[in-house]
Structures are given as C-alpha cells and as structure tokens.
C-alpha cells in the first residue's frame, strides 16, 4: 500500500501537495549546494593533505566570504609565525 500523494495518479487528486514537494525539493537542493560549496571552497578543508601541507596560506590575499561588499583586499586573520 502506497501513501496518498506519492504517485502521479494520487498527486493529481491532491493538488495541494505539489507546492509542498516543490518547496521541499528546492530546499534540499539548496542545502546540498551549500554543503558542497563548503567542502570545496572552505579554507578549513583539505582534500590532499600530503600535497599541500598548509592550505590556509593561499587565503592570505583572497576573500573567502560567501558574499563581500568590499573591493579592498582582505586582511588575513591568520597569525604570522
């Protein structure tokens, strides 16, 4: 037995479920995109630790914020050893 609204035939009878599934799908796609972006672009994540021992050094002159309104070069919060 299949729950109502889970097949195309029953979805045609329950039209009010279509926006729910649409919003849920968009939310899941957005969350997936953001998690993928964090895993690929974040300075705290390294995929090749043997090749690049200190990946955060590449971000001294880069902006790694999601959205930046300033066009000035960023000041790195990393300590200088």
List the SSEs and their pairings.
Elements: H1 8-13, H2 17-41
Pfam families: B12D
InterPro entries: B12D
Protein name: Cytochrome c oxidase subunit NDUFA4
What would you say this structure looks like, in words?
The protein has 81 residues and is mainly α. The protein is built from two helices and no strands. The longest helix has 25 residues. The mean pLDDT is 81.
Count of helix runs: 2
Task: Tell me about the largest β-sheet.
Answer: none
Strand content: under 5%
| Protein structure class | mainly alpha
- Ends: how far apart? 65 Å
Would you report the number of β strands? 0
What is the CA-based Rg, rounded? 22 Å
- What is the mean pLDDT? 81
Share of helix among residues? 25-40%
Ranges where pLDDT stays below 50 over 5 or more residues in a row are none
Query: Which geometry do the CA atoms define?
Result: elongated
Topology as a string of helices (H) and strands (E)? HH
What are the defining features of this structure?
81 residues; mainly alpha; 2 helices; elongated
Give a quick rundown of the structure:
The protein has helices spanning 8-13, 17-41. It is mainly alpha-helical.
